[in-house]
């Protein structure tokens, strides 16, 4: 049984929306040169890698690209 609660993990209060900054952020996350695109390229390249070590390295890099970022 699933219970879906539409609530954010942390409260967000946006006082001054900045559409230009939002466009830059979304392009870095989901654009062709963003995190998801990079991750999928690494994970797809592992299938044609020449050795098990290279496959393991590409898997590690690809999964690291999918990890959530914490910026300070």
UniProtKB/TrEMBL annotation:
Pfam families noted in UniProt: Mn_catalase
Record text on cofactor binding: Binds 2 manganese ions per subunit. Binds 1 Ca(2+) ion per subunit.
Cofactor(s) listed: Mn(2+); Ca(2+)
Positions of Ca(2+) binding: 60
Xref: SUPFAM superfamilies: Ferritin-like (SSF47240)
Species, as recorded: Ruminococcus albus SY3
UniProt-recorded name of the protein: Manganese containing catalase
Residues in coiled coil: none
Keywords: Calcium, Manganese, Metal-binding
Top-level lineage group: Bacteria
A single GO molecular function term of this UniProt record: metal ion binding
Sequence positions that bind Mn(2+): 35, 65
Family membership noted in the UniProt record: Belongs to the manganese catalase family.
InterPro entries: Ferritin-like, Ferritin-like_SF, Mn_catalase
